[in-house]
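Team,

Forwarding the record for the chain on the shared tracking sheet. I've put the sequence and predicted structure together so nobody has to dig through attachments.
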Amino acid sequence: MSVIEKCYVAVLAIDIITVVGRRTATTRSLKLCSCYNAPYGMAGKGDGEGEGNVLKLENQILIIKYVILFTNIIEWMIGASIFALCLWMRFDPGIGTILDKLDADTFYDGIYVLIVASIIIMIVAFVGCVSALQESGIALLVYIGTQVLGFIFGLAGSAVLLDNSARDSHFQPRIRESMRRLIINAHHEESRKSLAEIQEGIACCGADGASDYLSLKQPLPNECRDTVTGNPFYHGCVDELTWFFEQKCAWVAGLAMTVCFFHVINIVLATILKSALEKEEEQSEAYRK
């Protein structure tokens, strides 16, 4: 069996195994074996060297393609998880009740951004699979652009969410102000019920502790006391609510940051794949001359 025949059989086997790609098995085989412009038995420049280089590059392209497909499947699954968690946090009645009573609806800003980011992530993952299978330079450029967009939204959503839920963030002063306002207006039925629901539900007392009632010259309510010991709860509602929301937001922010990491990886892989495809075309053209 001649070198040309061996080349034809090897490339044809690769195409049958991989199934996907932008060229048919016959087309790729003819291109690599220079059967377009050269008569049978006449190899291109470098005899078998050109064939080996093109085949080696083709194998590298296949590996990059499958890595991109694998990372995009993971990315889509994480994006769907972020979408589900954000919807749950947005429409959870317990969270909504607490935020309404504390006038802290800005907590939802990060949720809204991450909902948009999760939708972008799922679309980007689909575009990534299609662009990798088509091996299209234009599709890969679109894919890189959507990856950058997804990275920006994911990073911004995580930052806004943590800024409205974590310790030492803008969330704590807002809770402190709302709690002190409710304590001052505790003689009103609505404020008293709101305080009772928050302090009993979270097991906290005042904004920063029972001392808030003393400093604001208000009586200490029973909701501020432990039902077993009768002592006031040690921690204030600012700390307890921060820990409460921080635990719920940590998973969402962590998943969003993980996807951002995958975005960076996929941008690099897509750039390498685009360069490899261009190089493959150049080598194929040079080999046929």
